[in-house]
Amino acid sequence: MTPGNLRRRTREAVADRDLGDKVHRATLRTVRKRDHLVAELPEWEDLRRRARELRLEALDRHAELLDAFRRALEARGATVTVAATRAEAAATVVRLAREAGRRVVKSKSITSEEVALNPALEAAGLEVTETDLGEWIVQLAGQAPSHITAPAIHLGVEDIARLLRDRAGVELPAWVERDGTAPQPEREALARELSLAARRILRERFLAADVGITGANFLVAESGTIVLVENEGNIRLTTCLPRRHVVLAGIDKLVARDADLGVLLRLLPVSATAQRQSGYVSLLADRHPDLHVVLLDGGRRRLMDDPEQRDLLACIRCGACLNACPIYRCVGGHAYGGAYPGPLGAALLPQLDDGARFAELPFASSLCGACTDACPVGIPLHERLLQLRARLVRSGAARDLGTTLRAATRTMRDPRRLRRALGLYRLGRPLLGLFPLARRWSNARALPRPVPETFHAWWTRTQGRADRGSSPPDPSPLRPCDSARDPSPLRPCDSARDPIDLFTSRLRELGPDGETEFHRFARAADARGFLRELLAGVPDDEVARSGAPHPRREVRFGLTGADALIADSGTVALCLDRREQSLASLLVDTHVVLAHPSSLLPDVAAYHRRRAERPAPPGGRLDVLIAGPSRTADIEKTLVIPAHGPRRMVVVLCDEPLDPTT
After folding, report:
1. Beta 648-654 vs 588-595: how paired, if at all?
2. Using an 8 Å Cβ cutoff, are 317 and 227 in contact?
């Protein structure tokens, strides 16, 4: 990005009315759903404060946690590489991929965008397929993602339909072929058809892949757990089917303890996609035969040492600041010119990348503070942007504004100059439209009206007497944390409700059109009778059972037990010995879960506390949290079931034990 490019790109983006409409519709829909969920959580602010403490603690203890994470992974046979630069990280991943084959499937990873991984893999002769629906769409379009969690947010259903027609041979309805539009129900029906067509096309890529590349949402030092959060099931397929798994993540993704996930994983799905729980959370702490982790520094250690800006690395990449930002909603993600768009990108890119290249970004903000209010870990983004502006002006990087800001600074530091300037402004405001610079400013915004009385005049007149009956509000969204204090217990959601009733209602929310079912039986004989009826006429080779070999193709039914049922989100938890066992809950049309009432837990925090207290087996373990059938909303936020995993989930709760293997 050369000087002036940001202004050119933003002018082009603002002139594209269609782009603004698409981004506004998609982001505001997510914001409204998020606000609704937050209103149901009276402990939301407590969660935010605790999450900030945990993330800052991880930054304080970074060297210690990195060593612990490396030891835990290497003890299970994995390799861990710390890359100092983006080029080194990309080269390491390319080497690991070439060693295993040429067909690569890849899940969504903003870090891979940061290091330009796809071009590096393709230059090495590898066949790379993005498997997240939104990422695959922008890959086919030859574009970068426009949003952290919704990569194709800038494209309408018609744009995507024509793209899949031209690049993947998907047939389209006549109204799209005529370059027309249609009523909303037809548009939503087309979004579903396109999503299911992508599922069929990408299934072959998964089954043929040699290498799976993922990012990571969190890396737990205590247990060496790699945490991956998704809705579609593509990450689970990417980690289970190829023989080699390569993880690329920033060194800032480390957290100290498994129990910390009980806070972070309650905040992330609400903020990212307005869900109580994401469709799938994979907790990989298993002994994988061919696992390699590449951790990127890329300027992060330098930023950790910056006392003023270091909390930017507490970010959990939810994208909530983008959805809330009025600037992002007008220009979209591509205008920012780097891997990280929105308020986060405006603050992060000048410090992780070339400061001169991205010097304009901190000034592309209204400083309204909406991003700070939305941030689930309480990063005061608008303050960080203001601090960066001052740094860039002092360094001479922001040359266009330097002269103006220096003149304004001199004026505001001299009371006489300031009074003179205010008087001139009051007299000259009606004439400012005659000057080109003022005219360009007023084309997009109104010049402020002069106040009837300045503060200095009021002070002189009243001698500083103020209303003693009120005190100014605390401007800081979150007070500084004491990361050394012990974790405080957080009140579970809906603790007064019967956990079975709560689990049932939450589960049914996940399948709005009957994709989820719940059945309870007192006797095992009755439950087995229900299962016999459910599977009547189904051949044995169309039923996959937990622990038994899977045919590595989609079958009609998969039967698994449940390690836990999490009431407040309707989530099923599986505890597995190896990744192959995941396929019984993944490469199936209908996932049937057999559970006992003793497995019920109130919320995800209780689950992670219990998981942290359990000793891991010698070979490690793989835990998966499943919230309903697989789903995607990457095309105009239209919910589509299924994405890459099952289309249906049936939970059978029995007061007597049931064995899913028989």
Report:
1. parallel
2. no
**CA distances for 479 relative to 171, 262, 317, 484, 619, angstroms:** 55, 22, 22, 15, 42
CB of 274 closer than 8 Å to CB of 637? no
Q: pLDDT at position 423, please?
A: 82
Instruction: Tell me how far apart the alpha carbons of residues 524 and 147 are, in angstroms, rounded to a whole number.
Output: 48
In angstroms, the CA 629 to CA 586 distance is 9
How many Cβ atoms sit within 10 Å of the Cβ of residue 300? 21
CA 531 from chain centre, in angstroms, equals: 37
Which residues contact residue 5 at a Cβ distance below 8 angstroms, ignoring those fewer than 6 apart? 337
Mean residue pLDDT of the chain comes to 91
Predicted TM-score (pTM) of this structure = 0.90
Under the banding of pLDDT at 50, 70 and 90, the label for residue 460 is: confident
Confidence label for 4 from pLDDT (cuts 50, 70 and 90):
low
**Model pLDDT, residue 174:** 84
Question: Based on C-alpha coordinates, what's the Rg of the chain?
Answer: 27
Residue 482 has pLDDT above 50, yes or no: no
The whole-angstrom separation of Cα 638 and Cα 26 is: 10
CA atoms within 13 A on the CB side of 466: 8
CB 140 within 8 A of CB 128: no
Question: How far from 29 is each of 32, 35, 231, 270, 636, CA to CA, in Å?
Answer: 5, 10, 18, 13, 10
pLDDT tens digit sequence for 609-621: 999 999 888 889 9
Taken in order 571, 577, 579, 585, is the CA torsion positive or negative?
negative
Cβ(250)–Cβ(296) under 8 Å?
yes
pLDDT of residue 616: 85
Neighbours of 223 (CB within 10 A): 18
The Cα–Cα gap between 186 and 172 comes to: 12
Report which of 252, 237, 291, 296 is spatially closest to residue 116, judged by C-alpha positions.
Answer: 296
Q: How confident is the model at residue 464 (pLDDT cuts 50, 70, 90)?
A: low
Q: Report whether pLDDT(472) > 90.
A: no
Query: Closest by alpha carbon to 90, among 113, 69, 70, 68?
Result: 113
Q: Spell out where 273-404 has E strands.
A: 280-286, 291-296
H-only helix segments in 245-307:
261-273, 300-304
Tell me the average pLDDT across 181-185. 84
Region for residue 396 given its phi and psi (left: phi exceeds 0; alpha: psi -120 to 50; beta: otherwise): left
Reduced to 3 states, what is the DSSP secondary structure of residue 150?
coil
200-220 pLDDT, tens digit per residue, is 999 999 999 999 999 999 999
Residue 401, both tokens = 């504004």
| Beta strand ranges found along 522-654 (DSSP E) | 543-545, 555-561, 564-566, 571-576, 588-595, 600-601, 620-626, 648-654
Strand duo 244-250 + 291-296: pairing: parallel
- pLDDT value at residue 495: 55
* Contacts of residue 219, Cβ cutoff 8 Å, sequence gap at least 6: 69, 225, 226, 227, 249, 253, 254, 255, 293, 295
pLDDT band at 280 (very low <50, low <70, confident <90, very high): very high
The pLDDT of residue 311 is above 80: yes
